[in-house]
Each structure stands twice: as C-alpha cells, then as structure tokens.
Design goal:
single chain, alpha/beta, Rossmann fold, Beta-Lactamase, 6 domains, five-stranded mixed beta sheet, five-stranded antiparallel beta sheet
C-alpha cells in the first residue's frame, strides 16, 4: 500500500540519516522532519499510513493516534558513550543522561567511569525532562547528555551539554523493523482469510463458544460429529464436559460414538470463551502417530558411554564412579539434575556399562506423551481394546524394553491417574496390555530422571509419595556445570575441536576468555555450553573475547552495559526463522519441553514440529 510507512525525523541529523538509509535500501518511504504536534499535522497528508518510525517525545505523541503503530528509534550504549566522552573531554565530573524512556530505556541507573559520576534518568514527557535537568544541576551536575529538550534546558544554566544522537545503523534497523511489521500486518488479513479453510480441513472438530455459550466459530468436522443435534443445542449437549474442572482429554459417548474431548478456556478482554476440541475414534490412531518419543527417533539403543563424559573435577569423578557401581545392579535409579546437565547421557552410559548393554534401551520423554494416551503408550493394547486401536494391537514401551533398560525422562509429567498403574509395574515387574487379561512378566531395568523437586510435588498432591519412594532407590545427582570448575574449559575446547575437526591442543583460549567462561552461570548447563561452542567454532580455533561475549549475550538476551549494544542481538541480516531458532534454542537449553511449550504458548506437538523444522538439538 502506498505511503503505508512514514519516517518522522524530529531533527535534521536524524532526517539526513533516514534519507540516506531509505536511498541505500532503495525504498519509497516518505521522510518528514517534524517535532511533536507538528509531526501529527504532517501525518494528515498521508491517510494511508499505519506505521510510523520516529524517536523520543515525537514517537510518544504519535502513539496516541488510533490505527498507527510506532517503531521507536532507541539509542545504543555506544551512542550515549560517545556523548559522555565529549563531556568528559571538556572536564565534566558529574554527568546526567536525561531523555525519553523510549530512547534510553525505562530503568534509572548510576555508575562511574573512572572518577566520573554518571546518572541515567529516563523520563516520560518534556515537562519531566525539564524538571529532572533542573534538579540535577541544583545537585551539582556539571554536564547534561540528552534529547533536544534536555539540552536546551541545560543551556539556560550555562553547563556543558551533548545531545544523544542515533547512528546510521540504528536508523536503518528501525526501517527494517517497520518493513517486517508491514509484512506481518499484511499477513494478518491473509491469515484470517485462511482460518476458515484451515478449520474445515483439520482432522479434529473445533467449536468456540462465547461467554454467552453460543457457538461463534466451528468447522465442518465438528458439524459431522455433532449431527443430528441442532446448532443451538450444541452447548446443552456438551455442557457437563465444558463445565468440568478436569483439564485432561477424556473419552465420552456422543450420538452412539466414542469421542475424545478436550476443553480449553480462551480469555480475552476480561471475557472467557471456551474452545472445544473433538476427535472421533477413527482419528485416535493418527494422534498416536504424532507422539514424540525419543526411542522412535533414536532407535532402541544407547549411543553414549562413560568415556564420552568429559570431566576432571572431583565431584564428577565421584558421580561417574557411583554411576558405574549402580550399573551392576538392577535396582531402580533416580537421576536428579538441572536441565541440560546430561541426565540422559548418564542413563545411556549406565545401560552400556551394565550386563544389559546388548539389550534394548528405550528412552521416553514423559512430557511428550499426550494426555489420554499415556497408558496405551506405556503398557500397550490388544486388538479391539478401543475404537480405532491398531488391528493387531501394539506393544507398550515397557514391553519394548524387555531384557534391557527403560529410561523415563521428566518422570514428574506422568499424570496422577496413570501413576498407580506405573507403581504396580515397578513393584511386580509385570504389565497387562489394555483390553487384555494376560499378565506379561517384565525383565527390565528402570532409570528415571527429573529436574524438579519431587517431594514438593508430592506435598502438593501432584506426585504420589509411594511412587517416589519406589523410584528413588538409588539416587544419582548430576552437578550443574557452574560447579564443575575447569571442566568448563576442558569441555568447551573439546566441543570446539569437534566442530572444527581439529585436535584439542589446536584450540587456543587466552586468560580473558577463560575468565568469561568460568564466570558465566551456564543456566543451560552442558547443552548450552555445547551450543555456544558450536556457534564459536565458525570463528576458527583461536577463540576471541569479543566473539565469546557476543555469542553469550545473544543467547541469554542480556546486553553488557559496557561492551554491547542492542545490535548484538538483532542484526539486519537475521531472518525471522533465525530469530525463532535462537528463541527456541535458548528456551530448550533452560526448560523442559512441557515448560517451553507452556511459556511459548504452543501445543507440545507444535513444539516438536518446530524443533524438527528448525533443526534444533532436543
């Protein structure tokens, strides 16, 4: 759409930068030099505009216009530092940085540069800026860095001033963000057009009831499941299930058919809609195929051995030694450790060190088992056990591990209603397939893992005490990476060498790099360390301090107030897919899959597809 984006430059400096950036990008975006109320008047000449790029108070004024989205031009630390250096060179000893909070950030701060005191004062409007400048000068400030209002106010007191000016790259980044926003807004309309087509082709019945219990959106699949009930009776037919406090999917009888139903509350504008998802028996088998199980992806074998675990610290030496002793026993093991600490690696190593090494190793991520199908996946079922069951039945995961080891990761995610059945399997070492009357004896080793405080879950009624005590026979605690000292350096060099296809001795780290790696908290543990090593391997075998900092702060979303600007995270050449990949890698390094799905607001099946699509190591 013509003139859908307009650049409002509040001063001649930004105007010149914007003109240059627009020309370089070969765009036809109008650039207007206007300030505050004048900017609003200038926008009247562009009735098609719905995105404005601007800065500071002018940006805040424009935000009040209905239908306009504003892209703020923010100042990087280097922009501010440049102005600070100018005043320091003039002999200023106490400097205040005063500007709009959408330029310098919303958080006040103070710090020192050698013997120079610096205070950061974000303000919300011009009046606050003037009052803040006057107060600072009364308190002994001899230099003001800030916006036009701050600088003009300070000049009345004859103190040194330096304006905060954005650079070319900040302006260019703002334009690119506006273009991306434009594409997103255009896509929204197309997305709405596709929604009805999507709903009518999805293999589930979808009904959305509004706060008045009227079906405001539904697809053809739902109509077929609800037939012959009239539309105005749908809520009445499903009312008991919709009002149920049970969030889990459950099977109900509907018009002489078995239907899997799930109800999801949808809260918006203080109102609550209800999304009802219906799946008839013929679709259950298809749902089973989408289950994400580690054993299906990796095969029924363990790839890792104790020799693959890199360590030198005493705590890890004790942990490995204890794990080796555990390997010679058939007792159940509970592995405790933070996300990314290497729990599955230990489980595989224990299996390969045990007499069961040549037998199956079945790895199960309990968080990826969909509610309503957990029992059938763990214990199996026979033909005819339920409508839609596989013709010849199906082995459960416990049965698939016969003679070997089953590893149950994120064990706390098993639903309470299945925990009692699981307890019997552990006690009796036997299972009965769903729909069968035959007992199948099991010869298996059970290893479980968790990154949560199970006793706390027991106290909350979310995990059975008796199951916990049955599982926690042998306890193995994996120390977090931050407590392993020089192991961090040893592992980092080993990972980089592997990615660079070189020897460990060819990898060079100076003392500054080592200090950074040892001083970092590594919330994602070994998994995060490996990801950082992979990213740094692209810079070669000589690891530089600036590259390490860039990768670490990009991954954590933290910006060093001394060395990094916002450009260390967002670069002009990054695609949305790359940003999405960074996001999911960051989250998976720090949380379980179920937690990531919840925080990202997606279904676990969607998260699984994202991991595969973006080629992220889970």
């Amino acid at each position: 759409m013509k003139d859908s984006i307009v650049f409002i430059a509040p001063n001649s400096h930004i105007n010149a930068l914007a003109q240059s950036a627009v020309s370089q990008l070969n765009l036809n975006i109008p650039v207007i030099e206007a300030y505050d109320h004048n900017a609003i008047e200038a926008l009247r000449r562009y009735p098609s505009c719905h995105i404005v790029i601007s800065r500071g108070g002018t940006a805040n004024y424009i935000k009040g216009i209905k239908g306009i989205t504003v892209v703020d031009l923010t100042a990087s630390f280097f922009d501010i530092q440049k102005s600070l250096n100018e005043l320091i060179a003039k002999g200023c000893k106490k400097i205040a940085v005063v500007s709009q909070d959408n330029v310098i950030g919303p958080t006040p701060a103070d710090f020192s540069i050698n013997d120079i005191e610096v205070e950061l004062h974000p303000c919300s409007n011009a009046e606050e800026i003037m009052n803040t400048v006057n107060t600072c000068i009364r308190n002994g400030t001899d230099g003001i860095v800030g916006c036009v209002v701050a600088v003009e106010t300070a000049r009345q007191h004859a103190v040194e001033v330096a304006p905060v000016e954005v650079d070319f790259y900040s302006v260019k980044k703002g334009i690119l963000q506006a273009l991306e926003l434009e594409r997103n807004l255009d896509n929204q309309e197309r997305t709405i057009d596709r929604l009805e087509s999507l709903l009518n082709n999805i293999e589930e019945g979808i009904i959305i009831f509004d706060a008045g219990n009227k079906p405001i959106l539904y697809n053809g699949y739902a109509s077929r499941i609800m037939r012959p009930e009239p539309l105005d009776k749908w809520y009445e037919v499903l009312e008991d299930e919709i009002q149920s406090t049970t969030e889990a999917a459950r099977v109900i009888s509907l018009n002489q058919n078995k239907v899997l139903i799930r109800v999801i509350p949808l809260v918006h504008d203080s109102l609550e809609d209800k999304v009802v998802i219906l799946q008839d028996s013929s679709a259950i088998e298809e749902s089973v195929k989408t289950i994400k199980l580690s054993s299906y992806e990796k095969g029924l074998y363990a790839r890792h051995n104790f020799k693959d675990i890199i360590y030198s610290c005493p705590s890890m030496e004790d942990t490995v030694s204890l794990a080796k002793r555990f390997a010679n026993s058939d007792s159940t093991i509970m592995i405790f450790g933070e996300t990314g600490a290497g729990k599955e690696g230990f489980a595989q190593s224990i299996h390969n060190y045990s007499p069961r090494a040549k037998k199956p190793f079945v790895s199960v991520n309990c968080a990826s088992l969909p509610q309503g199908l957990v029992a059938s996946e763990l214990f199996g079922y026979v033909e005819g056990a339920f409508t839609g069951a596989r013709r010849n039945g199906k082995k459960g995961l416990f049965e698939m591990a016969q003679g070997g080891t089953i590893f149950l990761d994120e064990i706390t995610e098993i639903p309470l209603e299945v925990q009692s059945q699981f307890l019997r399997v552990i006690q009796e070492r036997e299972i009965m397939r769903i729909g069968d009357d035959k007992i199948i004896p099991l010869d298996i080793r059970i290893i479980c893992a968790t990154n949560k405080e199970i006793l706390s879950l027991c106290e909350e009624g979310r995990f059975r005490y008796d199951l916990y005590y049955r599982l926690n026979v042998l306890s193995l605690i994996i120390p977090p990476l931050r407590e392993r000292g020089d192991d961090i350096i040893l592992m980092f060099k080993s990972f980089v060498a592997g990615f660079c296809k070189k020897k460990i001795d060819d990898i060079y780290l100076d003392d500054e790099v080592k200090d950074i790696l040892l001083g970092y908290s590594w919330p994602g543990n070994v998994r995060e360390l490996r990801n950082v090593a992979e990213a740094l391997s692209f810079y070669g075998s000589d690891i530089k301090k600036q590259n390490v900092e860039r990768i670490l702060y990009r991954k954590t979303g933290t910006i060093s107030t001394v060395h990094h600007s916002s450009d260390s995270i967002f670069r002009d050449d990054l695609t949305l897919k790359e940003l999405e990949r960074y996001y999911y890698k960051y989250m998976i390094a720090r949380h379980s899959n179920s937690e990531v799905a919840k925080l990202a607001g997606v279904a676990r099946s969607t998260l699984w597809r994202k991991i595969k699509e973006l080629e992220i190591e889970d």
